[in-house]
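FIELD: query
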Amino acid sequence: MLLRRLVNSTVGVDQLRRPLLSTCAPNTNQNRDLVNLSGLPLITQSMGRKSGASLLHAVRSADALGRPLNILVTIHMGQLGSSVDTVFHDFAELREWFRRWSGNTPKRHPRNGTPPYAYVHENENGLPHTHWMVHVHPLNWARFEAELTRWLMKFFNIKKLPAGAVQVKEAYNPEGLKLYMAKNLDPYFAELWNIEWEEGGPIAFRRADVSRNLGPKFWKRQKAAYKAARAAERSPSVPATVAALVALPKPPMPSHVGSVPTLRVPAELAGAAVAALQLPHEQSPGRCS
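FIELD: result
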């Protein structure tokens, strides 16, 4: 209810064409960054550091999960009816539909499973659009595109999508696409991380995000494991060094070894020799006087 009042105060009741998702209801922990001190929705001009870091780690994190980001969906939400103030919530509805769609298992089609994804909203001349990189099983690509089109037509109450409003393509270069999607990063971090910056226009609420299974809790563990593996490669541990030394080929034994007769010393003579070489107790270097 609080989130609905915040949006009403900005866009007006007549612009709320549909109810908001219950999953988007605000709480103290998750949506503190979505409003400013006056209680109005936060309007961002660029992507923050945390969102940018998660976006840049999303591709490798998805690969580590075995669900690569293989589809790029570009939706011109402004052509369908979204505004700068409503695109966040409209796309939240779409993500909820995709979560249910991905969990279904129709006959003769493989189950898509828990979907990893990364998205960013941009605003060009007041018409927002969304880049959405997501995992879809290759055998489900055609079904995904068809059902996505039907859902958008029903959600925005239009009979036919405008030409070019929705583009579904194979993400042939995810590493390059993530850099393109991160071009609206905060200029300071864009320069720090060597990303070519472009202005993304104002967007209300959250501009970019990734799915929970690609979030910081996952990619930070992956990063720590990668750093540990790199450190192990650069400075091998003691057991590894010992094992390497043991594995070295042993030099050949000289031919004359074993041909010299062994000198056998009587036990009493050997004991006397050892006693003579030992130091007295008070002169022992290993003990304190």
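FIELD: remark
Residues 1-33, 256-263, 279-289 have pLDDT under 50 and may be disordered.
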